[in-house]
Amino acid sequence: MNSRRKGFNTEKLKRIHRKEILFNSCELEAINHYCRRYRVRNKSKFLREAIISKVLNRFDQDYPRLF
Fold it and tell me: Is 53 domain-assigned?
């Protein structure tokens, strides 16, 4: 049984590009507080999803509409 889905390219989904981000003390404290409060175990995943969510929302807002 082949567990790969047809037409699904896992090579494109590999995370190979690194970006760094700097936070000030207040921002980091807020992130840490949020992660403790809502039991976020994987901060990388949380930050990645938050960033991508914001980007996709903006793309959706900027999408040209006819009406």
Answer: yes
Tokens representing residue 63 in the block? 């999408």
Examine the pLDDT at 5 and tell me if it is beyond 70. no
Which residues form the domain of 28?
A: 20-62
Q: Who's near 23: CB < 8 A, 6+ residues apart?
A: 31
Q: Tell me the whole-structure pTM to 2 decimals.
A: 0.72
Domain membership flag for residue 3: no
Q: Which of 22, 21, 47 is nearest to 34 (CA)?
A: 47
Q: Which amino acid is at 21?
A: I
Domain count for the chain, please give it: 1
Predicted confidence band at 10 (pLDDT cuts at 50, 70, 90)?
confident
